[in-house]
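User: I'm new to structure prediction. If I give you an amino acid sequence, what do you actually give back? Let's try with this one:
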Amino acid sequence: MQKISLLIVMCIMFYFVGNSQVQQEQEIFLKKSTSKDKTYNNNKVDQKATFIGGDSELFKFYKNNSTFKVNHFQVPDKSTYFNLYIDEKGNVYDFKIIKSVDDDHNKEIERLVNIMPKWNPAKNNNKTVKVILLDYITFQ
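Assistant: Good question. You get back a string of structure tokens that encode the predicted 3D arrangement of the chain. For your 140 residues, that looks like this:
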């Protein structure tokens, strides 16, 4: 019984220690969408929104435009995760930090999103739609 209690206490400690690195979610609105249309999950539409040139070009965009060094591989404790909101025309109009490394990286993400070019818009039922998608940047 003591071993089970000790195991439970250790699990709780690991949970809080692991999550203490994650800062509170932050939502920063860039350009509010003027459309009242529904926003879809990018993974649930017929044709996903994509960065022009694909994921490799998106990585190049981050790498070439970031003031920090960007790592190609995902490293959970060094990655900042964020949602991108893309409208029917392919414009990124909002983002939300989901998991933060620190405030400097959050500001860098905001700067990169502000200069990000248009995406290929998502389609659902042969109509372009607004979507939200999850992305990350791993800083070295």
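You can read the tokens as a compact description of the fold. Here is one thing that stands out. The radius of gyration is 18 Å.
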